[in-house]
Amino acid sequence: MSEPAARSTSFTAIRLFLNLRLAARVTICVTLWERLTPPVALACLIGSCLYDVLVFLGLRRWAVPVPARLVMDVADVAAWSAIAGDPIDAPSLLAAPLAYELALERGWRALVVPLTAGTAANLALTVAGWPYSLSPFLLPAGGVAGGLFIARYLDGRLRQRQRVAAAEREAARSQAELAGRHSVAVGADTVVDLLTRTWPLLAGPDRTAASPLSAWRQRLAEETADHAEYLAVALMRWEQRHNLASPDLARDVEFRPVRGASLLLSPAQVAALEAALERSPPAGVVAVAVDTPRPLGRRQELRIGGAKVVLPEDAGPRTPPFDGGPIAIGLGAIGSLSHSYRDMDGVPLPFSAALTVAGLLTALWCHRRIAVRGTSAHGRVMAAGLAFGAVDAVVSTSLMQTMAAGGLTRMPFLHAMMFVFPLTVMYWRDLPRHSRAWAVAGAASIVAGCAWLLPVPLHWADLAGLVWPLAFSIGASGVRDLLDLDTSGLDHDLAAEHAAAVREGYLSGRADVLRLVEEAAEEATRRLRADRASLDPAFLPEIERRLHQVRQRVSALRSP
User: Fold this and answer.
1) What secondary structure does DSSP assign to 393-417, as a single string?
2) CA–CA distance, 328 with 423 (Å, rounded to integer)
């Protein structure tokens, strides 16, 4: 199992175990309130909740073997199925947390949970005289699907973060290498300048006056990137190459990034930027801005001076963006089919199928928004989720045919809250204050408006239905906490690798220049010894002084 899945098992799976099972216990005992008499139902609720809390505490401290947990959960589902009878949706969900956890750890092998729980529950139903039901198979299978989704999400998110981090390391190392080189080779009266000015004094009848460092310095300015680069570094590379290509100062350019200097460009986008600058070379002081920075490899729009420059999207494969919002909306859309289930709301199937299609299209649109804009699209995704939730709630409430199930009034609009509430929880920390306010107001308006639309009045016991959106919201909070936990731990490791790459790049850049200077100084010393008799005697003291000064400066630059 991957590290993200392992963290999820120890973090979200255990939290899901408690809140989902407690929600199921409340629903079961409320539906049995009259059948078992209130004192007995209350005792069952307290006892079963106490059992769940003890198991939860045990799971936090010990690794309970999976076969033992499977036996415990299957017996739990079978016993409560026989007692509750029809409907048995809530008892069936008692096995969903284990199915979710095993799906994270073992993938499709977690199907053993719904198969075992469904078989045992239906045997218990048959013995107790209740009709056969698919719920003990389907609802734990939903836990398997959720676990597979989350495992893929976390693994993909890890791959995406590592890919971006690798590109950031490349860009940071390149930037640091340039800084290391420039700390030695660029500036007023550097060791490179001193040695370059010494070479003409060594010129003789058969000797060239050109310094080997001059060609190297020109090549340094002409280097192009074959890896990811920060926008500011890519502009600086082109600026140096452009300015050194001609002695005409009127054509020189100085870029001043206003916004987006740290934008990360792929190698193809660096090439596209340089090609665009070559086609229409700017001159003078030029402001550069990026109004909407997008994720690595996506289409970027720059403003260079007064011109708009578009860097096309990479044609190569990319890691797709991973975000909990589209997943929550997509799962909610699939869940809209349950409105047509007989024990749910009895909505005609064509209408619930249309809701599912609309929800999946909404999730796809949200996915594409996030692919283009990253986390800055969360406000729009939140709005889209609320809009789909409102449509789902109004349509299902208006067309419901099953008014009650298990002694409780059906509230179809609560299904929308089972993805709107989690979506709000996941995005809460990323949304500005005004967006949080309208998200809460929108969800409250959906609940209030659809409660008014219900064709039958609500009773106090119906409030038990609110435990389901609450349980899923707590689960979403756990997923968000997990993502933050993964991010903080991963970022700590990546930050160390990033710092090491920067340090290595800077030292490598310095060492590269110093090595070339030492080689050129040694060559100059050999030339001085070999050609001493043919050189102008007036220059000899100055040549020796300069070479001595070069050696001193190189020694000082090499010292820690």
Assistant:
1) HHHHHHH----EETTEE--TTHHHH
2) 7
Whether the Cβ atoms of residue 47 and residue 39 lie closer than 8 Å to each other: no
Tally of CA atoms within 13 A in the half-sphere of 326 that contains its CB = 20
Type of residue found at 100: Y
Specify the higher pLDDT residue, 176 or 71. 71
Per DSSP, helices labelled H in 428-539 are: 433-453, 467-531
Distance CA 19, CA 467 (A): 9
**Rounded distance, CA 370 to CA 379, Å?**
10
Q: For 133-146, what is each residue's pLDDT tens digit?
A: 888 898 888 888 87
Question: What is the SS3 assignment for 71?
Answer: helix
213 and 123 in one domain? no
CA dihedral 428, 431, 437, 443 (to 10 degrees): -60
Residue type at position 284: G
Q: Does residue 548 share a domain with residue 445?
A: yes
Residues 96 and 158 reside in one and the same domain: no
| Residue 473 within any structural domain of the chain | yes
Its pTM stands at 0.60
Residues 447 and 543 in one domain: yes
27: left (phi over 0), alpha (psi -120 to 50) or beta: alpha
Residue 2's alpha-carbon distances to 135, 159, 287, 462, 486, in angstroms, are 31, 11, 45, 42, 12
**CB contact at 8 A, 421 and 477:** no
**Same domain, yes or no, for 124 and 216?**
no
In a domain, 90, yes or no: yes
CA distances from 147 to 15, 85, 97, 423, 469 (A): 14, 28, 9, 18, 19
Length reported for the chain: 560
Structure-model confidence comparison of residues 375 and 8, the more confident one: 375
What is the C-alpha to C-alpha distance for residues 456 and 403, in angstroms, rounded to an integer?
7
pLDDT in tens, 98-128: 898 888 888 889 999 999 999 999 999 999 8
Find the domain containing 540 and state its range.
154-223+319-560
Question: Is the sign of the CA dihedral 58, 63, 67, 73 positive or negative?
Answer: positive
| Long-range contacts formed by 234-238: CB under 8 A, 24+ apart | 234/265, 234/270, 234/273, 234/274, 235/273, 235/288, 236/178, 237/178, 238/273, 238/274, 238/277
User: Into how many domains does the chain fold?
Assistant: 2
Burial 368-382 (b: 16+ CB within 10 A, else e): ebbbbbbeebbbebb
CA distance 512 to 293: 34
